[in-house]
Amino acid sequence: AAGVIQSPRHLIKEKRETATLKCYPIPRHDTVYWYQQGPGQDPQFLISFYEKMQSDKGSIPDRFSAQQFSDYHSELNMSSLELGDSALYFCASSLGRRDYEQYFGPGTRLTVT
Amino acid sequence: DQQVKQNSPSLSVQEGRISILNCDYTNSMFDYFLWYKKYPAEGPTFLISISSIKDKNEDGRFTVFLNKSAKHLSLHIVPSQPGDSAVYFCAATDNYGQNFVFGPGTRLSVLP
């Protein structure tokens, strides 16, 4: 069965640069969640979308923005990157805003130098 | 293909009874397993973990059991309390932490 796809899997950027992370949910899933997991930390909820509308907002910095497109894929745009943004970024998808049966992608490892 | 599976999307348990949440994995390279608890619109928070060199780890009311040959682990909560109601994610990682995989989660409802 198809899983959540995240691209790229690894990304290296310099301070003050921008980055765009992409998430392709499981087919028919209409809800996407973004999490940021720093080294040795719990994943922090950033933001979620349901049916292309922002659903919940967590600890997403103002430098970050995200959206969900008509094909339900989502992009997380990160600007003015800081060293502290280095983390593993997970995307998860579910059907109908269920917070369980939330299928995680493999993550994008962002390194800011 | 899912490397970490939680086949029960939801579970309801009476307060005071035992809650058992199950998790199966397929990748034999996984050697460290974690359970997370999650509330709506929040990130998963770490609960308890177990290394593959152990078969049991206990922390208060929470015990995780690992059966490596069956590639199966379970989280036991005894006694269950209403505050335990949340979504529980199982996660697995390999020795280098490069491959970190979450299961889809199980919603636990503890009824008063």
Mean pLDDT of chain A: 94
Give the mean pLDDT of chain B.
93
Q: How many β-strand runs of chain A?
A: 11
Structural class based on helices, strands and sheet pairing of chain B:
mainly beta
Structural class of chain A: mainly beta
Helix content of chain A: under 10%
* Number of β-strand runs of chain B: 11
Sheet of most strands of chain B? 6 strands, mixed
Q: What is the H/E string of chain A?
A: EEEEEEEEEEE
Helix-strand pattern of chain B: EEEEEEEEEEE
The unreliable regions of chain A are none
Radius of gyration of chain A: 13 Å
Residue fraction in strands of chain B: over 45%
The multimeric state of the shown protein is heterodimer
**Shape estimate of chain B:** globular
Enumerate how many helices of chain B there are, as a single number: 0
Bin the helical content of chain B: under 10%
The proportion of strand residues of chain A reads over 45%
The CA-CA distance between the termini of chain A, in Å, is 37 Å
Poorly predicted runs of 5 or more residues of chain B? none
Major pleated sheet of chain A = 7 strands, mixed
Helices and strands in order:
The complex is a heterodimer of chains A (113) and B (112).
Chain A: E1 5-7, E2 10-13, E3 19-24, E4 31-37, E5 44-50, E6 53-57, E7 64-68, E8 74-78, E9 87-94, E10 103-104, E11 108-112
Parallel strand pairs in A: 2-11
Antiparallel strand pairs in A: 1-3, 3-8, 4-5, 4-9, 5-6, 7-8, 9-10, 9-11
Chain B: E1 4-5, E2 10-14, E3 19-25, E4 30-38, E5 45-51, E6 56-59, E7 62-67, E8 72-77, E9 86-94, E10 100-102, E11 106-111
Parallel strand pairs in B: 2-11
Antiparallel strand pairs in B: 1-3, 3-8, 4-5, 4-9, 6-7, 7-8, 9-10, 9-11
Q: Can you describe this structure?
A:
The complex is a heterodimer of chains A (113) and B (112). Chain A is built from no helices and eleven strands. Chain A has 113 residues and is an all-beta fold. Chain A starts with a strand and ends with a strand. In chain A, 40% of the residues are buried. By secondary structure, chain B is an all-beta fold. Chain B contains no helices and eleven strands. In chain B, strand 6 and strand 7 form a beta hairpin. Chains A and B meet through strand 5, strand 9 and strand 10 of A and strand 10 of B.
